[in-house]
Amino acid sequence: MKKSRSRRVRRSFLRLFGLLALIFLLTFFLAGGTAIFSPRTWSKAGDFLPKLDPAPPSVAQTGTTEPSTLDRIERFLFLRRAVESRLQRDTYVPIKDIPDDMKNAIIAVEDRKFYSHWGFDPEGIARATLVNLQYGQIEEGASTITQQLVKNLFLSHEQSFGRKGEEFLLALDMEANYSKDEILELYLNTIYYGSNYYGIGPASEGYFGKKPRELKLPEAAMLAGLPNAPSVYSPYADFMMAKKRQFVVLDAMVAAGYIDKTRAEDAKLTPIYLAH
Questions:
Q1: Angle at 203 between CA 93 and CA 220, to 5 degrees
Q2: Which of 13, 47, 206, 257 is the most buried (most CB within 10 A)?
Q3: 16: in domain
């Protein structure tokens, strides 16, 4: 009798414990507890870790050593901490101080689907994959602005399937942790514009002697054309090539619906005055 009663008490206790656990879990999830599984939650947890030593973005480094597997995992889990360590805050320009023409020009010529994709362009990837499989190596890319950002911040220039895979995962992580406007802001502040100018602030000052917010359409279009091949299109290296590239950007803005043909033609004819 005592054993039977003991079993019943044990079962009752287990049922009560199970019921309380179920109620707790339901309350936890309904109260927004699912945030514990969000990449943003994990990334913000990095704020409690020691800050990483500041380092230039990978695009500005030479002869860098490859990070360990542990470093890669830590970067993926605590992405915001890793990103912050690569930013040059003394020249950083918030997106509110970057004119719409500059933002639209970059999107039009680099990644027209920027606001609709999740960090990668499936159509572009499919096309590039066919080409790369044909040649047995990376011959063609399909990088979005998000992919270019993580590459410029963290990755080497090695053209391999492994590096492209890491780029893909980091791009997804970036999209999960930052808004589109934040990603665009980071991109504009870290890309290389040629002539040793990294970021929109130094490039705007260096080429035109202006703050980014003072840029006009002709200047914005010229700057937006530089990241594709900075050493080729820098107006200090070859002004005529920079001008031709500016035309490409303006035509892309028309095709994307950011400006009309009249405004584009006016911008093409407007003289560009360099800082020196």
A1: 85
A2: 206
A3: no
pLDDT tens digit sequence for 37-74: 455 555 566 666 778 888 888 888 876 677 888 888 88
120 vs 145, 168, 171, 225, 239, CA distance in Å? 9, 7, 7, 21, 33
What contacts 58, CB < 8 A, 6 or more positions away? 64, 86, 151, 152, 153, 154, 155, 156
Three-state DSSP at 150 gives helix
DSSP 8-state secondary structure symbol assigned to residue 64: P
* Structural domains in the chain (count): 1
Model pTM?
0.79
**pLDDT tens digit sequence for 146-165:** 999 999 999 877 767 777 78
Full domain range(s) for residue 186: 69-269
The reply to whether 23 falls in a domain is no
87-117: per-residue pLDDT in tens? 999 999 999 999 999 999 999 999 999 999 9
Residue 17 lies in a domain: no
